[in-house]
């Protein structure tokens, strides 16, 4: 497989804009994590029950991307952004007035249906402009920038809680949605020209989905990205019960611990970007898989001891989360490398698959009967093990290609 220089240079400002659109996801997920115990008290339920608003958001992300992908391939990248970001801002405002946990769960689904447009369009726009090596660099740059989101989000959420309550978090998210809409209108330039757009009927969309999924150059990297990324969703869904309920961290301490793990993504994404010209995309993907598996194994073993030192747990979590700096951009670059004008639909499938795994993880965690740390370790170990097998299939396919 050839990895030539990118066809077109990209600016940092362009990556910043795409990162902002993609960061709506982690901001919407991570900013209110410190508030889960407070929300649970407000609604009279457990923290774990309140954490079900996370898989609800994942459900909306998974379903929404399947809609925006083919639409963006048909009408371009910019128009869907207007619709999705407007829906996101409106739903965020409605979350402020949620009267029960089930009311909030439904509104979180709607919020996700709007917010997921950013991640679909960002990936498709990168594929519109760049080849596989340029894409890997761009995805790494974007992960470095958007890595600020999971660091800043819990801290911002914790400070909002210091001065107000959890409802103010959603006011902040609505404001961010409006800022994103403003930036799209004035600074986002269409990347899919009319001559390259696909004229798709509903039946043709289904056929296109099937065609992309049959493409092994897409399917194997997609599975690798979904499974290794699933370890992050396991961490997100369990972070509050483990760190706040089990280890007694307060809101600010939780935000700092969460930010430390997110910092690992930035560090490894930066290293990944520097290695682009020296280490193949496949080998960087393998390295990330091994790092994540090592971290998941550490968390699992720690969970077997009931209540181990938090330092051991944090080391395992840091490895599991930071390894995404290698697996995320390289799996994405490989999956999107052969998709061309159907990049929007391919991006939607991959994004939907990632959040479908996140939804499944959130549901399964409710049925595991052990302590929250061991439950998280079990899910992480299963996902990273599956990720390593998928990465082996990726390496085998591209070696033969």
What is the element layout, followed by pairings?
Elements: H1 12-30, H2 36-43, H3 47-50, H4 53-75, H5 78-96, H6 101-115, H7 117-129, H8 132-146, H9 148-163, H10 167-187, H11 202-214, H12 216-246, H13 251-274, H14 281-304, H15 310-322, H16 324-336, H17 343-365, H18 372-400
Helix pairs in contact: 1-7, 1-8, 1-9, 1-10, 4-6, 4-7, 4-17, 5-6, 5-10, 7-8, 7-17, 8-13, 8-16, 9-13, 12-16, 12-17, 12-18, 13-15, 13-16, 14-15, 14-16, 14-18
Account of the 3D structure:
The termini are close together. The chain has helices spanning 12-30, 36-43, 47-50, 53-75, 78-96, 101-115, 117-129, 132-146, 148-163, 167-187, 202-214, 216-246, 251-274, 281-304, 310-322, 324-336, 343-365, 372-400. The chain is mainly alpha-helical. Helices cover 81% and strands 0% of the residues. The chain is globular. The protein has a single domain, classed as Up-down Bundle (Growth Hormone, Chain: A), CATH 1.20.1250.20. Mean pLDDT is 83; it is low at 1-8. Helix 5 (78-96) packs antiparallel against helix 6, helix 5 (78-96) runs antiparallel to helix 10 and helix 14 runs antiparallel to helix 18.
């Amino acid at each position: 497989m050839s990895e030539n220089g990118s066809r077109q240079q990209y600016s940092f400002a362009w990556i910043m804009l795409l990162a902002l659109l993609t960061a709506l996801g982690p901001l919407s997920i991570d900013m209110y994590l410190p508030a889960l115990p407070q929300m649970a008290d407000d609604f009279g339920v457990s923290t774990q029950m309140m954490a079900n608003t996370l898989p609800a958001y994942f459900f909306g992300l998974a379903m929404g991307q399947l809609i925006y992908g083919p639409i963006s391939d048909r009408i371009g990248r910019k128009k869907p952004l207007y619709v999705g970001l407007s829906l996101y801002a409106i739903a965020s405002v409605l979350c402020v007035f949620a009267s029960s946990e089930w009311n909030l769960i439904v509104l979180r689904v709607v919020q996700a249906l709007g917010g997921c447009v950013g991640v679909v369009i960002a990936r498709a726009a990168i594929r519109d402009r760049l080849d596989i090596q340029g894409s890997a660099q761009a995805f790494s740059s974007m992960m470095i920038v958007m890595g600020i989101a999971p660091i800043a989000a819990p801290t911002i959420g914790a400070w909002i809680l210091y001065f107000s309550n959890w409802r103010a978090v959603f006011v902040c998210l609505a404001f961010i949605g409006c800022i994103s809409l403003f930036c799209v209108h004035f600074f986002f330039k269409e990347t899919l020209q009319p001559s390259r757009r696909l004229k798709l009927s509903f039946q043709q969309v289904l056929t296109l989905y099937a065609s992309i999924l049959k493409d092994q150059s897409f399917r194997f990297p997609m599975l690798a990205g979904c499974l290794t990324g699933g370890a992050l969703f396991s961490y997100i869904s369990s972070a509050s019960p483990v760190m706040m309920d089990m280890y007694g961290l307060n809101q600010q301490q939780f935000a700092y611990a969460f930010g430390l793990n997110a910092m690992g993504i930035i560090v490894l994404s930066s290293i990944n970007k520097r290695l682009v010209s020296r280490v193949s995309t496949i080998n960087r993907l393998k390295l990330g898989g091994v790092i994540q598996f090592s971290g998941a194994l550490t968390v699992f073993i720690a969970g077997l001891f009931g209540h181990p030192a938090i330092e051991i747990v944090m080391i395992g979590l840091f490895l599991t989360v930071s390894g995404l700096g290698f697996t995320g951009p390289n799996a994405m670059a490989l999956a999107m490398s052969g998709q061309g004008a159907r990049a929007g639909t391919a991006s939607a499938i991959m994004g939907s698959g990632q959040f479908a795994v996140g939804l499944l993880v959130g549901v399964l965690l409710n049925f595991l009967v052990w302590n929250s740390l061991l439950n998280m370790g079990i899910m992480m170990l299963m996902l990273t093990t599956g990720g390593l097998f998928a990465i082996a299939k990726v390496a085998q396919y591209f070696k033969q290609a």
